[in-house]
C-alpha cells in the first residue's frame, strides 16, 4: 500500500519540494509503487532528501527506470536556532557556529554510493540558510539541554549544484592524474574533517573515480582512477538528463 509520508515533513522539506516542482508541477506523485515528492512541468520526478540516502536505494532506481529523477539534498550553510519554553514563549535566537559545505553530501551518500551511477538520476545540492525551532520539553538530546527539535524552515536559497553524471564528481578530487593521496591529505586540501574525507573517498572509489594505490603505514593511499567509470547496468533505456 502506498503511503504519503507528509506528516513528519519539515517546513524545509516542504519548501524545497514546492520550489523544485514549480507552479505548474505536481506534488505527491505515485510512481513505481512509491510516492515521489513531486514532478516538475518538464516531467522530471523530484525527491527531496534531508537525511541518509539509504531509504532511496531501491526507490530511486525504480523511479529512474521510468523517467528522469532529481534528488535534492539541502546543505545548511548558515543555521539560526530559536529556542522556546514548553508554553511556546521564545527564550532566545542565535546563529549556530556550525556551517555545512557541499562536501556534506557524502554524509548521506555514503549509505548509497551506487546512486550516482544510475542512468537518468541527478543529485542536486541546494545550499540554503535555515532556521531550526527547538522546544525545552525535557525530551530532547542532552547535548541540547533536553530541547527537542520541532521544525526546520528555509530562510534563503543561495546556490544549486547539480551533479548529473559520475564525471561531475571529479570536483571532489582536487588532485592531478598520477598524484597519490590519502584521506588526511584530502581533508587538508578540502578543509573538511577526517571522517568526512574518508566517507568521500569511500563513495568516490565505489563510483570508480578513485582507486586504491597502496598504503602508507596504516593509511590507504589513493589515486585518480585511470579506468572508465562504471555505469549502472539498469535503466539502459534512459538517456542522461539534459536539464
Report on this model:
The protein is an alpha+beta fold. It contains five helices and nine strands; from the N terminus they run αβββαββαββααββ. The chain has helices at residues 11-21, 56-64, 105-109, 183-190, 194-206; strands at 26-31, 34-39, 45-48, 69-85, 90-95, 121-136, 147-163, 210-216, 219-224. The strands form two sheets. Strands 1, 2, 3, 4, 5, 6 and 7 form a seven-stranded mixed sheet that branches. Strand 2 (34-39) and strand 3 form a beta hairpin. Helix 4 (183-190) packs across helix 5. The longest helix is centred in the last third of the chain and has 13 residues, at 194-206. The chain is globular. Residues 1-6 and 228-243 have low confidence and may be disordered.
Low-confidence stretches: 1-6, 228-243
**Strand pairing plus helix content: what structural class?**
alpha+beta
Oligomer: single chain
Determine the fraction of residues in helical runs and give it as a percent range: 10-25%
Return the string of H and E elements.
HEEEHEEHEEHHEE
Q: Please tell me what the overall shape is.
A: globular
The tally of strands reads 9
Give the overall average pLDDT: 90
Beta content: 25-35%
Distance from N terminus to C terminus (CA atoms, Å) equals 32 Å
Measured on Cα atoms, how large is the radius of gyration? 20 Å
Let me know the largest β-sheet.
7 strands, mixed
Helical segment tally?
5
Give a quick precis of the structure.
With 243 residues, this protein is α+β, with helices and mostly antiparallel strands.
Amino acid at each position: 500500500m502506498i503511503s504519503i509520508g507528509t506528516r513528519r515533513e519539515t517546513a524545509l522539506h516542504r519548501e524545497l519540494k514546492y520550489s523544485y516542482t514549480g507552479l505548474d508541477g505536481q506534488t505527491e506523485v505515485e510512481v513505481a509503487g512509491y510516492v515521489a515528492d513531486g514532478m516538475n512541468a518538464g516531467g522530471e520526478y523530484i525527491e527531496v532528501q534531508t537525511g541518509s540516502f539509504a531509504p532511496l536505494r531501491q526507490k530511486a532506481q525504480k523511479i529512474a527506470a521510468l523517467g528522469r529523477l532529481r534528488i535534492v539534498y539541502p546543505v545548511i550553510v548558515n543555521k539560526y536556532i530559536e529556542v522556546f519554553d514548553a508554553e511556546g514563549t521564545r527564550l532566545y535566537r542565535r546563529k549556530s557556529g556550525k556551517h555545512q559545505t557541499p562536501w556534506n553530501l557524502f554524509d548521506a551518500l555514503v549509505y548509497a554510493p551506487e546512486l550516482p551511477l544510475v542512468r537518468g538520476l541527478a543529485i542536486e545540492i541546494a545550499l540554503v540558510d535555515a532556521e531550526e525551532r527547538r522546544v525545552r520539553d525535557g525530551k530532547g538530546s542532552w547535548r541540547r539541554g533536553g530541547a527537542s527539535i520541532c521544525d526546520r524552515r528555509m530562510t534563503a536559497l543561495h546556490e544549486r549544484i547539480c551533479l548529473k553524471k559520475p564525471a561531475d564528481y571529479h570536483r571532489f578530487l582536487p588532485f592531478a592524474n598520477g598524484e597519490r593521496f590519502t584521506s588526511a591529505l584530502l581533508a587538508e586540501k578540502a578543509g573538511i574533517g577526517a571522517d568526512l574525507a574518508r566517507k568521500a573517498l569511500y563513495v568516490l572509489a565505489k563510483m570508480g573515480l578513485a582507486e586504491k594505490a597502496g598504503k602508507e603505514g596504516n593509511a590507504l593511499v589513493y589515486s585518480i582512477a585511470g579506468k572508465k567509470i562504471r555505469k549502472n547496468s539498469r535503466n539502459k533505456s534512459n538517456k542522461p538528463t539534459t536539464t
